[in-house]
Amino acid sequence: LLDSEDKSLESAVVKVINPDEQCDGSLELQASSSSLVVKEILQEAPELITQQLAYLLRGSILFKCMSLEPERIAAQQEKVLSILEEKFPDLPPREEIISVLQENQFSPPSISIEEVMLKDLKELSDGEIKVAISTVYMTLEVRENL
After folding, report:
1. CB neighbour class for 42 (10 Å; exposed up to 12, middle 13-18, buried from 19)
2. What whole-number distance in Å separates Cα of residue 70 and Cα of residue 101?
3. Which of 49, 30, 26 is nearest to 39 (CA)?
4. pLDDT tens track for 26-81
5. What is the pTM of this model?
6. PANTHER family per the record (predicted)?
7. What's phi and psi for 45, nearest 5 deg?
8. Which of 50, 72, 75, 101 stands 20 to 30 A from 64 (CA)?
9. Are 39 and 82 in contact (CB under 8 A)?
């Protein structure tokens, strides 16, 4: 369900992909949302995947995988990455993307605290009272300086 301010977009939603519903209960790592989206597009409309979209989706998958050992990447994620790399051989090497992602993961944010708080904002309301909850990830060093 979309928030009230997004209700006008409801007719544009064609499918909801929930990674939790895709998990088969095995011990294999859960696939990333991006790999599930790529898998769906490849099945339904592979012509929609351009090199630019492949670059974006591949980066998102690699971001989720970058802290894992290569042998721990879920088979589905590996399959999707391989398909994108075969379809677009000019994509930068995985190691290069992971290196850039790691360099920027802990660099100081160039966005305001308000933008960080709004990024993952969840709102609950009983009609009278409205509660907003947001998750902010930071290193202990950053937290101590606040």
Report:
1. middle
2. 16
3. 49
4. 544 456 778 888 888 999 989 999 999 999 889 888 887 776 665 566 777 888 89
5. 0.58
6. BNIP - RELATED, DHHA2 DOMAIN-CONTAINING PROTEIN
7. -155, 70
8. 50
9. no
Of 29, 106, 91, 23, which is closest to residue 57 (Cα–Cα)?
91
Q: What is the three-class DSSP state of 77?
A: helix
- Give me the pLDDT at residue 91, please: 93
Q: Where are the domains of the chain?
A: 7-108
Residue the block writes with tokens 């997004």: 6
Q: With beta carbons less than 8 A apart as the criterion, state whether 53 and 34 touch.
A: no
**Structure tokens that stand for 53 in this block:** 């979209």
For residues 38 and 32, give the distance between their C-alpha atoms in angstroms, rounded to a whole number.
Answer: 10
Q: How far apart are CA 131 and CA 124, in angstroms?
A: 5
pLDDT digits (tens, 9 = 90+) for 85-121: 999 999 999 888 888 887 776 665 566 767 777 777 7
C-alpha distance from residue 7 to each of 11, 79, 129 (Å): 8, 35, 22
Find residue 130's DSSP bridge partners: 125
Q: Which amino acid is at 86?
A: E
**The length of the chain, given as a count of residues:** 146
